[in-house]
Specification:
This protein has three domains: about 190 residues, Metal-dependent hydrolases (TIM Barrel, Alpha-Beta Barrel); about 30 residues; about 240 residues, 3-Layer(aba) Sandwich (Rossmann fold). It is about 40% helix and about 20% strand. It is built from 17 helices and 16 strands. The strands form two sheets. A seven-stranded mixed beta barrel has the order 1-2-3-4-5-6-7. It has a seven-stranded mixed beta sheet with strand order 12-11-10-13-14-16-15, sandwiched between helices.
């Protein structure tokens, strides 16, 4: 049975879902039960007794939004502690939606009051969802997903699967299943950017904030023209079995550009990983959700993966089938392994994120066997893609804004990475790249839409061009295959 939480109707300023659309949606069996939670508004009495609708309210508090489920009376207080107490007094459940949508959110005072913690919301950033999952794991909170649908085409993007043998459930049975954690997150997709701007423009229109209305309407139209859906594909980059697996694992959402350059980098790394002899060991440093670990395990390695993110490790362990990969929570700057342990070490898009990348490379050198191979990938400032972001970073500095994430990615020209690798005691066996021809995301999007055959050709040519030692100096991502010592052989590559 499917339960969809966190739905807004047209009674919310930023919602346009009608009751007729909800009825039609429930009859279609896309969801068996649905929780309405309009902003500071009690569900109308006509719906409170609806067998498939859970009445709820999304309250604005001094700590952020709080949803009360299974409540039918208004709560006037704006203090989070009073709201949660009143929800429980009414026999309801306290749900925290999009907990880290706003920076500085702190839920420590309410931990004992929280019944459900939203770790996936289709309308917010992937990082905000990861922060919520990390917090839930650290504090042993029940994790749920809510669709946060404001428009009818936002319904069904996230829901829970309930564990019950009963053919139908009343509201008390639904409440008990949620309280007893008898459910799992069954779907957790991301909302197209257009739906977010559509809701924001609707709210500003109803509030007669005409300047904001025009701004969000412009963003809505721009998103419709210049951004692709996350499952869009063109010749050469379709949804093959590998891409379906990646889509399910990484939940790219509307980040089609990340989806594309991630696949190109995966293709490039796949071509560099050699097949193991006997029971050789491999380590993925900064394993994220574990895809490379799965790749190396399938080749025959005894595989280990480390990451600082407990949330990403949660996904990695959940995606693994046979449970043969050894995952640990650790940093590249302090690897929890003895000297000379691994035949292969992969470190992809990690070193630019740590405070002391040189120390990270020294740790990789320490755990790598004498004849072992390491593969290092990092962004390359000398590409058009990152030079563009570097310009944005510099303009931001002039305006007094610090784009820290851009700074991480825009301080690594290829020669600086080469120097760092060599000073760590490595010899560079091969240098290649990824994402050279495809370039500017907005222009690429237009090519994909109007000249898909050309886009497909560029996708096929990119890995070929990136083998050229001169041209790959300008690739967006640089890939170094390295070994210990100054006179390493190339017989394994």
């Amino acid at each position: 049975m499917k339960l969809e939480l966190h739905v807004h109707t047209n009674r919310s300023l930023d919602g346009d879902i009608t009751l007729e659309q909800i009825e039609k949606y429930l009859k279609s069996s896309r969801a068996d039960y649905l929780a309405i939670s309009d902003h500071d508004l009690i569900v109308p009495k006509i719906l409170q007794n609806h067998p498939q609708i859970i009445p709820g309210v999304e309250f604005q508090s001094d700590k952020g939004e709080i949803i009360g489920l299974f409540i039918t009376k208004p709560i006037k207080s704006k203090r989070a502690t009073k709201i949660t107490r009143e929800i429980h007094r009414q026999g309801g459940l306290v749900m925290i939606p999009h907990p880290f949508l706003y920076s500085g959110a702190n839920w420590a005072d309410l931990l004992k009051e929280i019944d459900l913690f939203e770790v996936h919301n289709p309308r917010i950033s992937r990082q905000a969802n990861l922060d919520a999952l990390e917090y839930a794991l650290n504090n042993h909170l029940k994790q749920i997903a809510g669709s946060d649908a404001h428009t009818h085409n936002g319904l069904g993007l996230a829901y829970l699967e309930l564990f019950s043998k009963e053919p139908e459930l009343n509201k008390n049975q639904l409440k008990q299943l949620l309280k007893q954690n008898k459910f799992k997150i069954s779907k957790s997709d991301y909302s197209p950017t257009t739906l977010v701007y559509q809701a924001k423009s609707l709210k500003s229109f109803r509030q007669k904030r005409w300047k904001d209305f025009l701004y969000y309407k412009f963003r809505f139209l721009a998103a419709k023209i210049f951004y692709l859906s996350h499952n869009y594909h063109f010749p050469g980059f379709g949804r093959d079995a590998l891409q379906v697996k990646l889509d399910n694992l990484y939940q790219y959402g509307s980040m089609w550009f990340w989806r594309l350059h991630h696949r190109l980098r995966i293709n490039a790394i796949d071509g560099l990983i050699f097949k193991p002899k006997d029971s050789q060991k491999a380590l993925d440093v900064g394993c994220n959700r574990g895809f490379y670990c799965q790749m190396m395990t399938n080749l025959g390695y005894k595989t280990y993966g480390i990451d600082v993110s407990r949330a990403d490790l949660f996904f990695a362990k959940g995606a693994e089938g046979k449970k043969t990969i050894h995952y640990r929570e650790a940093s590249v700057e302090e690897l929890p392994f003895g000297d000379s342990q691994f035949d292969l070490v992969l470190c992809s898009e990690v070193l630019e994120h740590v405070a002391h990348p040189q120390k990270g490379l020294a740790e990789i050198e320490r755990v790598l066997k004498k004849d072992g191979v390491a593969i290092i990938t990092m962004p390359n400032l000398m590409s058009y893609l990152w030079l563009r972001y570097y310009f944005v970073y510099l303009v931001g500095k002039l305006w007094g804004r610090d784009f820290k994430e851009l700074q991480l990615h825009t301080q690594w020209p290829f020669w600086r990475v080469k120097k760092m690798i060599r000073s760590a005691g490595f010899n560079i066996i091969k240098r290649s790249g990824s994402y050279l021809l495809l370039g500017e995301p907005v222009i690429l999007n237009l090519i994909i839409k109007f000249l898909p055959s050309l886009a497909g050709l560029l996708y096929k040519l990119d890995p070929i061009i990136n083998q050229n030692r001169f041209l790959n100096l300008f690739a967006a991502f640089q890939i170094f295959t390295i070994k210990k010592g100054k006179h390493a052989s190339t017989n394994q590559l």
